[in-house]
Amino acid sequence: MATAILSEVMVPASKSLAGKVALITGASRGIGRAIALELANRGATVAVNCRTSVIRAGEVRDEIVHFGGASEVFLSDVSDRFGARNLIQEVFGVYERIDVLVNNAGITRDRSIRKMTDGDWLDVIDTNLNSAFYCTSAALPFMIERSFGRIVNVASFVGQAGNFGQANYAASKGGLIAFTKVLALELAKYNITANVIAPGFTATDMTDHIPPDVMEQIKQRIPMHRLATPEEIAKAAAFLICDGDYITGQQINVNGGIYM
Ligand code: NAP
Question: What is the dihedral sign for C-alpha 169, 173, 175, 179?
Answer without folding.
Answer: positive
